[in-house]
Task: structure prediction
Amino acid sequence: MAGALLFEERNSHTLKDGRMVTVFMDLWSIDPPEPGLLESRFKLSWIAFDESDPSKRVLMDCHKPLGFHLHIDTGPQIPVTASTLDEAYALFRSKIAEYFGEELEV
Result:
């Protein structure tokens, strides 16, 4: 499954309440790509976490054999669906806003 790193983002945000949230976003291609599902063509690891307590987090992964899923804090995997990278990105942003109480520019 060797592939190329397509995108890498690292940034921090200060919330209105003063907390610092760090966001790491990595996206890799899968080589050779397989037709069909998004997780057959890409692997991603996107996380937003509270810098003062990294266990307070929203983590979205996409990898075989699990496909797309979320981890909230240290809780169980939550299966989610996305048929495009734009849908996955929108879902990740919405979960960050829901969890941390405000939208972040990621």
Q: What stands out?
A: The chain is about 15% helix and 45% strand.
